[in-house]
Design brief:
Layout (H helix, E strand, L loop, with lengths): L25 H13 L10 H14 L3 E5 L4 H9 L7 E5 L5 H8 L3 E5 L10 H7 L4 E4 L11 H11 L2 E5 L7 E2 L2 E2 L6 E5 L12 E5 L2 H11 L22 H32 L5 E3 L6 E3 L4 E6 L1 H4 L3 H10 L4 E2 L13 H4 L2 H5 L12 H10 E5 L1 H4 L1 H17 L1 H10 L1
Parallel strand pairs: 2-3, 2-4, 4-5, 5-8
Antiparallel strand pairs: 1-9, 6-7, 6-11, 8-9, 10-12, 12-14, 13-14
Helix pairs in contact: 1-8, 2-8, 3-4, 3-7, 8-15
The structure holds pyridoxal-5'-phosphate.
The site of pyridoxal-5'-phosphate has 14 residues, from helix 4.
Length: 415
């Protein structure tokens, strides 16, 4: 391999082709074919037999007692809020470092997303920042588990109990993850999972909501199914919508779920190996998993670089890594920078009614901003699904870019 960076015309460090996603074979084809032959394709009556069967298996794997399936992992959070009676004028605390859905879901339910900063050790919701943001109108917290790590659920549940708050875990990235032997999504009142095509359990689209009690699950099932009562009989008394997923999605998800335990074990072994390998590269800060994470799942892996050591920021490093053949990116902008939430742009009911809560120019989330502007490097799950060999190739690429950092810095300066 030439020492010259691929972005400057050298040979790529990554010689293997990372495995494509989603993994599939004849089992998926047969499962979908059986649904087509059955004639029961959709989501009505809700839930259909394949949806029920999938949810039962999902709960066996993830933990929890009650779950519903819906169209995606955004509406599951809106449904959770509405099932818990949270709506107009209520405040919902969300992290500054997440996909926009974590804040659009409260807005769709009529609630105000209150953005707070993240913890630099795990890039997840900072419990101290949560505590500081609580007001008499706060009703819920949505911790998001990102970067193959989890928010400190012990601290967050303690705060929630003290202030009587509902906790909805956004588990879009962490199917299979466990905290002290308990599945992510089963620690709070709700756990919301996305089955969108890139996620580590996918049906192309779809979402699962784990609910703490039968009562909450019934309320959620009703909202998903146009406000019908869970038994299907009786009058519509709840404002719901058609948030249903289909039997086709459930059939696909069930086959994908059979693959998930092995994939999780492969990625988990690979991610520990990655942590060790990266900790030997100067200027890399590994985000170490909390020892209370007892099973680690990997969707996007994040490490932090020290720009002063590398002489360039993470944007240049990610571009160089991409050229070397790695799926690398800089991750999310801090939540208050998303165009979507700027009140003058959105004309949405919540920002329009509460403009004082959307003065983003006056807000400051230094940890999330620094992650976005300088230090975070995100790697995709395929590196880990490819096992030790996948990690070895990634480390060769990262080390190469580190060793050639002066050439990279010079190229950036000359741009
Ligand atoms: C953190 C997070 N939450 C929620 C979602 C929403 O999931 P969906 O795309 O299924 O609506 C995503 C999707 O990318 C996500 O990354």
């Amino acid at each position: 391999m030439s020492a010259k960076l691929a972005i400057l015309g050298g040979e790529k460090a990554v010689q293997m082709t990372y495995p494509a996603w989603p993994v599939h074979d004849e089992r998926e084809v047969e499962a979908v074919t059986a649904v087509i032959r059955s004639g029961n394709w959709g989501g009505y009556p809700y839930p259909g037999p394949r949806t029920r069967a999938f949810l039962e298996k999902f709960l066996e794997f993830q933990g929890g007692q009650h779950a519903i399936m819906a169209a995606n992992g955004t509406v599951t959070m809106e449904i959770a809020l509405r099932a818990a009676g949270i709506g107009w004028g209520d405040e919902v605390i969300v992290p500054a470092y997440t996909f926009q859905a974590t804040a659009t879901a409260p807005m769709a339910a009529g609630a105000i997303p209150v953005i707070v900063d993240i913890d630099p050790q795990n890039y997840c919701l900072d419990p101290q920042a949560v505590e500081a943001a609580i007001t008499p109108r706060t009703r819920a917290i949505i911790p998001v588990h990102v970067g193959s790590l989890m928010a400190d659920m012990d601290a967050l549940m303690e705060i929630a109990e003290r202030h009587n708050l509902v906790v909805i875990e956004d588990c879009a990235h962490v199917h299979g993850m466990q905290w002290q032997g308990q599945g992510a999504g089963t620690l709070g009142h709700f756990g919301s999972f996305s089955l969108q095509s890139s996620k580590i359990l996918t049906a192309g689209e779809g979402g699962v909501l784990i609910c703490k009690t039968q009562e909450l699950a019934d309320a959620a099932a009703s909202i998903v199914n146009c406000g019908r009562p869970p038994s299907e009989h009786g009058e519509v008394t709840v404002l719901g919508a058609n948030f249903r997923s289909s039997e086709l999605h459930a059939a696909l998800a069930a086959v994908q779920l059979e693959r998930l335990p092995t994939q999780t074990a492969t990625r988990e072994a690979a991610v520990s190996y990655m942590d060790e390998a990266l900790s030997e590269i100067p200027g890399v800060r590994v985000l170490r998993p909390d020892p209370r994470i007892t099973r680690r799942s990997v969707f996007q892996y994040i490490f932090a670089i020290e720009p002063a050591v590398w002489g360039v920021d993470h944007g240049a490093i990610c571009a160089a890594l991409e050229a070397e053949g790695l799926d690398a990116g800089i991750g999310y902008p801090p939540m208050h920078r998303y165009e979507l939430f700027q009140p003058q742009q959105s004309r949405l009911p919540v920002p329009t009614a509460h403009p004082e809560r959307f003065h983003f120019a006056e807000m400051d989330f230094p940890v999330a901003t620094y992650a976005h502007e300088q230090e975070a490097v995100w790697l995709g799950e395929a590196v880990f699904r490819a096992g030790k060999a996948g990690v070895d190739q990634a480390v060769v690429a990262i080390r190469k870019v580190y060793e050639q950092r002066d050439a990279l810095a010079e190229a950036v300066r000359g741009r």
